[in-house]
Amino acid sequence: MDEGSGCAHAAPKVFVVEDDAALLDGLERLLRLQGFAVEHCVSFSEAAAEVLAAEVDCVVLDLRLPDADGLQICRDIRAVSKVPIIMLTSSESEFDEVMAFGLGADDFVTKPYRPATLLARIQSVLRRQATTGTPVLEHAGVRLDMASGVVSYEGASRELSRNEQRILQLLLRNVGSVVSRQQIMADLWETDEFVDDNTLTVNVNRLRKALNAIGAPEDFVKTRRGMGYSV
Q1: For residues 31 and 72, what is the distance between their CA atoms, to the nearest angstrom?
Q2: Residue 95 phi, psi (nearest 5)
Q3: Is the pTM of this model over 0.85?
Q4: In this predicted structure, what is the pLDDT of residue 115?
Q5: 222-227, Cβ contacts within 8 angstroms, sequence gap of 24 or more
Q6: What's the pLDDT score for residue 155?
Q7: List of residues 6+ apart from 180 with CB closer than 8 A
Q8: Phi/psi at 109 (nearest 5 deg)?
Q9: Tell me: the pLDDT tens digits for 213-227?
Q10: Sequence-separated (6 or more) residues with CB below 8 Å from residue 110
């Protein structure tokens, strides 16, 4: 079985790393009512190991934990698994958000949050994980393998995060057309709730860095000011 794919589970399994007992209890009840299997962390210092051993479909990870660093836990999980990670934080610091996405988090939710909002975000990353489409998309020498999430150019390749892959997929399916920022955000987060515009900028910049790292043209992803992006 693929790491983090959760294919063997009858119901999607969510692993929650949260130190607030009341929030943890409420979230576990909500998820179980919605048909999810739920596990939670026993030892925050061993959180990454517990997540990997549980073979879950999604991780909800608090950024601020006693005797543990949520960002380091995210880094440790992402080093060996592509399981979707949703970061939670009581901080509105832009730095925390940028760091979380930089380490491979798939989404970022600020406390206090509405339970329905977090549930929608979990369902969204699970839908994106399960989405299948054209196995390979290609334009101007840049090739995206949808099955593996690997982008390649002239023999060099790199694995993309889910958000990077989603953005590139959307652009490659609309070659020659401008894809608006609003359209990309709706596709990424599938919610009517406001998403900080900077969050999208962070993800696009990460995609550009990944493309530059394999030698793709600097302007492969073009910014259309006041409109969006295109390839």
Answers
A1: 26
A2: -60, -45
A3: no
A4: 85
A5: 224/178, 227/178, 227/180
A6: 87
A7: 227, 228
A8: -125, 130
A9: 999 999 999 999 888
A10: 88, 89, 90, 91, 92
User: Please, what sign has the CA dihedral across residues 95, 99, 102, 105?
Assistant: negative
In the 3-class helix/strand/coil scheme, how is the chain assigned residue by residue?
A: CCCCCCCCCCCCEEEEECCCHHHHHHHHHHHHHCCCEEEECCCHHHHHHHHHHHCCCEEEEECEECCEEHHHHHHHHHCCCCCCEEEEECCCCHHHHHHHHHCCCCEEEECCCCHHHHHHHHHHHHHHHHCCCCCEEEECCEEEECCCCEEEECCEEEECCHHHHHHHHHHHCCCCCCEEHHHHHHHHHCCCCCCCHHHHHHHHHHHHHHHHHCCCCCCCCEEECCCEEEC
At 118, which amino acid appears?
L
- Looking at this protein, which amino acid is placed at residue 115? P
Name 62's bridge partners: 88
Two structure tokens written together for 90: 């009581």
4 to each of 12, 16, 108, 223, how far by Cα in Å?
11, 14, 19, 34
Residue 131, token pair as written in the block: 């989405």
- Amino acid occupying residue 84: P
Residues of the chain with pLDDT under 50: 1-9, 132-134, 191-194
Residue that the structure tokens 């190991």 belong to: 49
User: Parallel, antiparallel, or unpaired: how do β-strands 13-17 and 58-62 relate?
Assistant: parallel
